[in-house]
């Protein structure tokens, strides 16, 4: 028979079931409904492999100790047994490992008894827990895996659908909690981090919102109209910190080289977006006695170049006028 241990915070509600198997004939199991609970075999002792098989057959696995509170609870709740209890740690490839998760036993989580693990006779690859031992109760000791002890099992509360697949389900005594992935929060990780709504002025924006408008992992791409250049990041992402990955970029007009008035001439410009930038137009004229050679006006293009060639003012030669059928004689000043 195996016994269920009540959760820390409440008395159990038990379901009495009789189950049999070829591996554990005649086993009668006591199981608590609807919570992570501990169970142990109160008839028969098992090698570590047999104990794990027992736990996986009727429950979830050999118990994985997560904190000191859990150790104290087990030591208080379990009956004393002279051979003690197997738990779900084993040396794999020379490294102590939680077999249920495949995670390495960290230094912070170690709970070895004094002088342990000692690997006596070089064959102690499994771990027992001292329950209600007069000295060092609740501590761990490495043992040969073929020795027979009680199986200490647990039944998991965590299921794949819990935590909305947006967090890690962590077993607790009699229940579970969700450790949400970055960007999510709430008891079941259903809530999503929100960033400030982006409202760029004069900057085209195209956004993608996988979890809702301007929320975690939303991305917004920015471009500029023809004749303008972007200053700043082209893509912004909503981070778990509720901040955007960069500031909203700006679009500035493409600049053209500064134009000068031709010698003996004048320059008159109009600027839509700033001096000598995209859309600027400049008109040329010459002083009396001079004639314009080249375009009367030039415009700054989206490529940052001016239309037409440079304008010049040419002097009229003596002896001919502008009305002369042969045309005036011109020369540069």
Report on the structure:
The chain has 333 residues and is mostly beta strands. The protein folds into 4 domains: 2-155, Mannose-Binding Protein A, subunit A (Mannose-Binding Protein A, Chain A); 162-191, Laminin (Ribbon), CATH 2.10.25; 194-253, Complement Module, domain 1, CATH 2.10.70; 265-332, Complement Module, domain 1. The chain is 6% helix and 33% strand. It has helices spanning 48-58, 68-77; strands at residues 2-5, 14-18, 28-32, 37-41, 61-62, 85-92, 95-98, 103-104, 126-129, 140-143, 150-155, 167-172, 175-180, 184-185, 191-192, 205-208, 219-222, 228-231, 235-237, 250-253, 265-270, 281-286, 290-293, 297-299, 312-316, 330-332. The strands form 8 sheets. Strands 1, 4, 5, 6, 7, 8, 9, 10 and 11 form a 9-stranded mixed β-sheet that branches. Strands 16-17-19 form a 3-stranded antiparallel β-sheet, with no helix packed on it. It has a 3-stranded antiparallel β-sheet with strand order 21-22-24, with no helix packed on it.
Descriptors:
single chain, 333 residues, mainly beta, Mannose-Binding Protein A, Chain A, Laminin, Complement Module, domain 1, three-stranded antiparallel beta sheet, 2 helices, 6% helix
Pattern of helices and strands: EEEEHEHEEEEEEEEEEEEEEEEEEEEE
Report the strand count. Answer: 26
Q: pLDDT under 50 segments (min length 5)?
A: 4-35, 321-326
Q: What's the gyration radius in Å?
A: 41 Å
Largest sheet: 9 strands, mixed
User: What is the CATH homology-level superfamily of the largest domain?
Assistant: Mannose-Binding Protein A, subunit A
Average of the residue pLDDT scores: 85
> Globular, elongated, flat, extended or rod-shaped: what is the shape?
rod-shaped
Gap between N and C termini: 116 Å
Question: How many structural domains?
Answer: 4
CATH architecture of the largest domain: Roll
Q: Which CATH first-tier class of the largest domain would you pick? A: Alpha Beta
CATH topology of the largest domain: Mannose-Binding Protein A, Chain A
Fraction in helix: under 10%
Number of helical elements:
2
Strand content: 25-35%
Report the structural category.
Answer: mainly beta
